[in-house]
Specification:
This protein has 293 residues and is mainly α. It is built from ten helices and four strands.
Length: 293
């Protein structure tokens, strides 16, 4: 559970913004990674996300997400040239495995590395969302659409860590016995405890009237300067990425030869992503408790 970034209130513009806007800010960097596979653009998106996490006070959490994603990126980079031998530049002439020729080409290796870099950006953006966006606020947004789904998600986010701690304590207790219990017995006890806890929670919710449900009232919270700053950075990233994608910038052709179009549009988009990561936190008005200029 320590690998998963956990939200904690912090004095930053991203934390102070309303959850929907803050989540859109994180999703804008994920959108850039989904639209482009150009390494320069992906590096800009990754750098912007890490800069935003550092400025928001969750740099440790975003770096933890980065470390979590790097092994998966390496795995993609290594597996892709094994399962697909496309490309004209042969690096390693392998033998036959189960009647299939295994050769490693530069193009397949580069394509796997680019796919891994996209995964890294997506995971780090999700890590920033998990660490800097209030989950209760997001659930309140979904409650207006589906009350029961929001309630289910809220219970899951609260009970999963509790159940994980219960399972860990049961495992510790089992190891203290002269004859340790098997993993199957520990898992059976953990599942039984989870079911008992679920029945108790369901009964408590029914007594409190949650079974009737209802539409959540619309919040009248006014927009703050932090909401506008984060929204401006979100629109900057999303509009720039969509515009340049429609214009054909950042094109990458991996097969049969690796071709990367690198020019002013790609450089401008990478710089925009880097700058947008710091935009909500720049200037004196971004500090909490400072009046609007």
């Amino acid at each position: 559970m320590s690998l998963v970034p956990v939200y904690r209130p912090r004095p930053s513009a991203l934390h102070a913004a309303r959850p929907g806007v803050a989540a859109a800010f994180c999703g804008a960097f994920a959108l850039a990674a989904a639209l482009f596979e150009h390494p320069l653009v992906l590096a800009g998106a990754l750098g912007g996300t890490l800069l935003a996490g550092g400025a928001a006070g969750v740099g440790r959490e975003t770096r933890r997400a980065l470390r979590l994603a790097l092994p998966l990126a390496v795995l993609l980079a290594l597996v892709n040239p094994i399962v697909y031998q496309g490309g004209d530049t042969l690096l390693i002439r392998g033998g036959s495995v189960l009647g299939r020729r295994v050769d490693v080409t530069l193009e397949a290796l580069a394509a796997g590395a680019l796919a891994g870099l996209r995964v890294v950006v997506l995971v780090v953006a999700c890590g920033l969302l998990s660490a800097a966006v209030d989950p209760d606020g997001l659930l309140r947004l979904f409650r207006r659409i589906s009350y029961r789904s929001a309630l289910t998600a809220a219970l899951a986010t609260r009970l999963v860590p509790v159940l994980a701690r219960d399972a860990g304590r049961m495992g510790d207790a089992a190891r203290c016995r002269p004859v340790p219990a098997s993993r199957v017995a520990v898992a059976r006890a953990a599942v039984s405890g989870a079911l008992d806890r679920a029945v108790d929670v369901a009964a408590a919710l029914e007594v409190r009237g949650y079974s009737r449900g209802g539409r959540s009232p619309v919040s009248s919270r006014p927009w703050s300067r932090h909401d506008f700053r984060v929204l401006a950075a979100t629109l900057l990233v999303a509009v720039a990425a969509l515009t340049l994608k429609l214009a054909g910038a950042g094109a990458v052709e991996a097969y049969p030869r690796l071709t990367l179009e690198t020019g002013p549009p790609e450089l401008a988009l990478a710089a925009t992503l880097l700058g947008a990561g710091l935009l909500p936190f720049a200037g004196r008005s971004a500090r909490l408790g400072v009046a609007r200029a």
